[in-house]
Amino acid sequence: MSPIGALFVRELRLATRVGGGALMGALFFLIVVTVYPFGVGPDLNLLARIGPAILWIGALLATLLSLDRLFQADRDDGTLDLILMGEEPLELVVLVKCAAHWVATGLPLVLISPLLALFMNMEPIAIGSTMLTLAVGTPALTFIGAIGAGLTVTLRRGGLLLAILVLPLTVPILIFGVAAANAPVLQPAPFLTPFLLLSALTLFSAVIGPIAAAAALRFTSD
Amino acid sequence: MALIDYANPTRFLGLVEKLLPWLGALAALLIAVGLGLVFGIAPDDYQQGATVKIMFIHVPAAWLSMFGYSIMAASSLGTLIWRHPLADVSAKAAAPVGAAFTFVCLVTGSLWGKPMWGTWWEWDARLTSVLVLFIMYLGLIALWQTLEDPIKAGRAAAVLTLVGIVNIPIIKFSVDWWNTLHQPASVFRLGGPTIHPSMLWPLLVTALGFTVLFVTLHLMAMRNEILRRRIRTLRMLQASAVAG
Fold first, then answer.
1. Is A185 helix (H, G, I), strand (E, B) or coil?
2. Where located (chain B) (predicted)?
């Protein structure tokens, strides 16, 4: 197996075994979505209208919460130093780590989103559009979040700072994600325009994220 | 007189000490003349009345909020590419000053919005993107305060500053791309300004005054940061001398 493939498999295994916490993000997602009706009241029409936005914000927070582990565990046991000194380009390693991280933590969010959408009394077409936009948009959150994870890797309690640094950068993803998810419900609004912009943002962040995160890792390493 | 000559902090401090009194006096003079023009010459707006005077603070503050971030981005390039020793000092010193001007821009805009738009805040593209800029300033300041080693903190902040620069063109062009409540650009636009000269000149004078004030504050903050780092180094030497 190529080193890159081996790294991908290793990341997935570590994430899904004891201490990996892959499904913790999905559980957090469930709880965030569950507390919304307690806050805004159990008005089913209102929930159906703001449902896509709630799911998107929940997915955003759940992604951010799991990101501080992206490089932390590797730094703690010294793997990060081996990666930094290794032959594989650091940008590629970060890209693979992000991809594996998304499969372990982002994909479960996408898969349980239809169930949570039922809680929100959303129409079938809105459930479909929300799931599709989450599937396309959450990788962008992971890639952008990797920058924050790289910057805060040397800190003991970097999780909160990571969220503060990364959240402003995720605003465009949230805007176009929710716009596309809402489009089938708000009929005259086009679906394709925000959806294509969201896809473009994901591709864009797949380039910027690994490069910036690799730079951050190099500069903040000892 | 190349930029690299001022890589020596002592030489830089000497230059700053010589420049600061002149810059401070120039800023005070320009702001005084500008305010004289604003209250003496610039007419009240036929619809907005005297509240239009807020513009002479609001617009320069808005320009300088973006100017401050641009200085930080240019300094970040200096940190990452040329490893100029004063580049991260410059970026760190610009952050609080830029955040302050962004805050002034948001507050004056809010005070102006209440009588004119009937609301303190509107989730319009330009207001939202300036708010995001303000949060990014605060996030960068938080990053500097969390990482102990100034060199490492400077490089980490430089990476984040360069990633965040995407927001600057969004702020600049938000009023052209999205048709929102905030009015479109009326000074720096193709085809010349749409604002009347009797208001344009006071605006340009106050804007220049505030810019000189920004540069003055920035240089003062850079001087303080250099001195702070010297104190830090001296303290560490002292501590290691006691320990050794």
1. coil
2. Cell inner membrane; Membrane
